[in-house]
Design goal:
With about 260 residues, the protein is of the alpha+beta class. The chain has one domain (about 5-165, about 195-255): Transposase IS200-like (Alpha-Beta Plaits, 2-Layer Sandwich). About 45% of the residues lie in helices and about 15% in strands. The chain is built from 7 helices and 6 strands. The chain has a 4-stranded antiparallel sheet with strand order 4-5-1-6, with helices on both faces. The chain has a two-stranded antiparallel sheet with strand order 2-3. Helix 1 (about 55-65) runs antiparallel to helix 6.
Length: about 260
């Protein structure tokens, strides 16, 4: 079930686990694409990636992550013509490997909680929507009643229209914010990237590449979002590691391939 909070009015649905803290220890497979998948980073020639000047920036600033973020390690990484792949290793909590060994269990628990969460969000979204509709209808009704009273008052007192109390500024009283606005603000605050999280790390990386590319006069842009995947076990880790390392050799068959 997709997370259509507020019926997509305020945010894009996320594929992330809502009950997973992305600051937790785990190995994260990261993919970030360029805007419209343009070949800003260079080209693959004879199975070898030839980096453009922007591609060099993408490579350098990825390796700078460990110098600006605590408890993070960098593993396999590659810059491709229109995207980058990399593995981020977070070590924020336990250093003895206990947490990492149990990642599969925790991701499964988080997934089941996420399903329940999404169902609950769908229900609360529908309730919020119906509440908002009722609120708007009530506001419209009260506004119409107030307007008719205002007109009647102006006729009897001779005050200018919209100014039943003789206020020289003629400013109407503002309506209080609706419940849906309050819910929106609370929700947006709850999903803001936390320091040391995967989102915060990637946001900083993307910002650095963009800033320096534009400073040097290069045309460049990232795709707005990025993809992350929690690696659950050693077999999956090896498969992803090999995929990243061999990406230039398999570029012609890659799902991001375009000429």
């Amino acid at each position: 079930m997709k997370n259509n909070l507020y019926r997509n009015k305020y945010r894009i649905p996320s594929a992330r686990l809502q009950n997973w803290d992305y600051r937790w220890d785990a190995n994260y497979f990261i993919t970030i694409c360029t805007a419209k998948r343009e070949h800003y980073f260079g080209n693959v020639k004879e199975c070898i990636m030839q980096l453009s000047q922007v591609g060099v920036l993408a490579d350098v600033f990825w390796h700078e992550i460990k110098n600006h973020t605590k408890n993070v390690e960098l593993d396999a990484f590659v810059v491709m013509p229109n995207h980058v792949h990399g593995i981020l290793v977070l070590n924020n909590k336990k250093q003895d490997g206990e947490y990492r060994t149990d990642v599969a269990h925790h991701t499964d628990v988080a997934h089941r909680r996420d399903v329940a969460h999404r169902r609950d969000v769908a229900h609360r979204t529908d309730v919020a929507h119906r509440t908002d509709v009722a609120h708007r209808m009530d506001v419209a009704h009260r506004t119409d009643v107030a307007h008719r009273r205002d007109v009647a008052c102006n006729v009897s007192t001779g005050n200018p229209p919209g100014n039943p109390n003789g206020n020289p500024n003629g400013n109407p009283t503002e309506n209080p914010p609706s419940n849906i606005s309050i819910q929106k603000n609370e929700f947006m605050a709850s999903i803001s990237p936390k320091s040391g999280s995967v989102s915060a790390i990637i946001r900083s990386y993307k910002s650095a590449v963009t800033k320096h590319a534009r400073r040097l006069g290069f045309e460049f842009g990232w795709q707005e979002r990025f993809n992350d995947h929690i690696i659950r076990n050693p077999a999956e880790y090896k498969r992803i590691f090999d995929y990243i390392i061999n990406n230039p050799k398999n570029w012609g068959k890659d799902k991001f391939f375009n000429k």
